[in-house]
Task: structure prediction
Amino acid sequence: MGRPPCCDKIGVKKGPWTPEEDIILVSYIQDHGPGNWRSVPTNTGLLRCSKSCRLRWTNYLRPGIKRGNFTDLEEKMIIHLQALLGNRWAAIASYLPQRTDNDIKNYWNTHLKKKLRKLQTGVDGHNQDVLSASQVSKGQWERRLQTDIHMAKQALCEALSLDKTSSLPAGLKPNTTNIYPPYTAPSQGSTYASSAENISRLLEKWIKNPSKKPQKNSDSFNNAVATTGSNCSEGAASTTTPEGFDSLFSFNSSNSDASQSMSLDETMTTATANLTPETSLFQDESKPTSETNQVPLTLLEKWLFDDGAVQGNEDLINMSLEDSAALF
DNA sequence: AATTCGGGCAACCGCATCTCC
DNA sequence: TGGAGATGCGGTTGCCCGAAT
Result:
């Protein structure tokens, strides 16, 4: 009857992670790099299953994760991408490097679903760029889709025959290819957490503030890691430049305000600039690498990030990834 | 002040896919 | 090439917290 669940073992702890567990996990990953999750519980002594460790890392502890409010831009992107890709949260998350699939999924389920439903029922539909897509008759959009697909196919062929790096702003690319360097523990380790010293400092911090609950502490831990990372030159030996840390940890919630005032292009350019190898190293951990490869990215992304094109291409929104992929 | 209720989110579960032997 | 194990992914659950009563 299939494989038994990995977490059936007696003695495997479930539920919220404690700050201490977080530290153990982070320091282990600092030394060994993410991956080989099977061995993590054994080597760290954590009473967690490997899955749990991986999830905790990818959804919470991994540096570069942006937490807090979603910007209008992000919201819009999620709506469009969801319309296009469906509930493929990992694929959607690949377009939002600072967000985890879990975050996006939760945001969709708790906020956007409601928002869209509200708009759908409350408005005539003409000014609802995304919702109106579903109102386009199938015959209509199928015809236009065929044209679009043909154009996309051509664009893709051209893009593939040209320099692969030049046709698209990197920030617009999902993390579908392994553009990240492989993990090398000794030199990159400092980017996970600044040092064991810093981790112990964090522990002290928690001990001093016992009133906070573990989950919230974990959140502060994330920030604390970022903070200590930025200030690592104080104590910990680090091979990463302050700029590197800046880019690595720049996706905090305070960033959202700034990005909101940016134009779409500016924001994406900024995101591109922030995709340093160090940053990407972590993003690679939770980002899918296969699914979105099939999308005719050039045209699709142009459409996706072109504000003015939203209305004009709304019928394309109804196209599923399978539909488009099948045509290639 | 106590209780209820609903929203938000972290984590779990199980299936799918990938990788390795 | 097939099977077993590892990892990825999406759906769902359950807990926590704040607002309402």
Remarks:
- Residues 47 and 86 of chain A are 36 Å apart (CA to CA).
- The mean pLDDT of chain A is 54.
- Residues 3, 6, 15-16, 35-38, 50-51, 54, 58, 87-90, 101-102, 105, 109, 213, 215, 286, 288 of chain A lie near DNA strand C (CB under 10 Å from a C1').
- The two ends of chain A are 37 Å apart (CA to CA).
